[in-house]
Amino acid sequence: MQIRLASNSLDTLAPDLLVVPVFGEPAKDAAFKALDKARNGELSDVAAREGFVGKAGQTLTITGNGKGPGRTLLIGLGEKRGFKIAGLRDVAARASRLGRLKGAKTVAVVLPAQGAKSVERAIELTAEGAHLGVYKFDKYYGDSRKKPSRIEEFDYAFAKAGKITAAQKRKFGAAVKRGVAIAESVCYARDFINEPADFMTPSQMAAEARKIAKKNAGLSVKVLSAKECEKLGMGMFLAVGRGSDEESKLIHITYKPKRAAKKRVYLIGKGVTFDSGGYSLKPSASMEDMKIDMSGAAAVIGAMNAIAQIGSDYEVHAIAACCENLVNGRAYKLGDVLQASDGTTVEINNTDAEGRLTLGDAITYARADIDKADKKNGTKKTPVEMFDFATLTGACMVALGNHTAGVMSHHEKLVRGWLGAADRAGEDMWRLPLTDKLKDQLKSNIADMRNTGERWGGAITAGLFLKHFAKTTPWVHVDIAGPASSSREAGAIPKGGTGFAVATIVEYLTR
To answer: How many angstroms separate the CA atoms of 58 and 507, rounded?
Structure first.
């Protein structure tokens, strides 16, 4: 799909599908008025007849009369005052999705008038949405069900624009490249999540990480086998995968900038490629979609693709602890006491609370890597930050629903910066209190701690468990249990794996 700047003159646009976002009352919207005038009042007549008033989410499709666009899609955005620019991603995604469904070869979207600082961002989001909208995981469909996109050109135009200079065109081109890189990376994560668990095993996750590193200069990858993890004392991580015939793998991807890094950032992803619950066996209905339990790992691996293409001032590490939580005679059991790689002993009172065990050892691995780098650099220590991403608790979904990630941290400045990036990226995240008042729930009578607390505050006690291993390192925990997958299409979100958190990670590390 070629994404390009269309002619400044709206009345000359004649794609197979023209998409016009409308703020509030159509008669007051600049793009609507310009197009309506060019079409002799046709748009206003049809809008009035069909009751289109520009409410958020309202749409109206107008079939062409042989002149101009084949179809025109009006999308209501509601009042301009409350609109966030990230919403343009959804507009472009809906445009490309409809274009794909209708077999359009050319699609154009009219961008609302933007301030000078927002134009490039609007173009970036449009390019991102255009690619996300045509995403379809149809690998396992028969030929009769596969419907490849026919879209060859996706144009963007401005509701109001003067002469566009050569310098602006170069900036617009860079914005398109950034948007496409992010979309490609989100789609990588979606593919990882949507693949069946018998294909997307820990070893396959490692293979996919190597593919991404091979295609991107600046990335290197190291994969630790189960034996290597055993030497590092990763008793929690290895116990989770003990019931599976698939070997557990710890994946470590590194990006290093050309100049001295301003800071080092560690992205740690939960990579449970299938979660049966272990001996705390899930019911069949709850187990059906548990191939998505590696969405955190998918996000951090996918994000590295965009980081390498866009570039970052930071040294970035993606660490994915990948395993399967299954049941056999060797599987870990309730009442077992596991030893973490930092020496902590953990009593198991729920084998279905396995994600925090894998992450605990992965966080300790990251901290050891930080210490190793600090020793090498001597007194010139680089500032460090750590983030983990996991489909960790159903309790977070109970609290926040299906669309919002729960965020916890013991570092105020870091969590504020992260939530700011999430807001700019248009991904819903909400901070939950990491209160020590619930810490007593993790006390064990026979070990240093146990892996779960009581029913109440389950998302927070999971965060407190991870905080124990993060120690004093500036750290943010992101529970993506709700938004990691979707049961229906909505805007740029497809049915199935969403690739949630990739956009925020890239926004935070490359802006």
So the answer is: 29
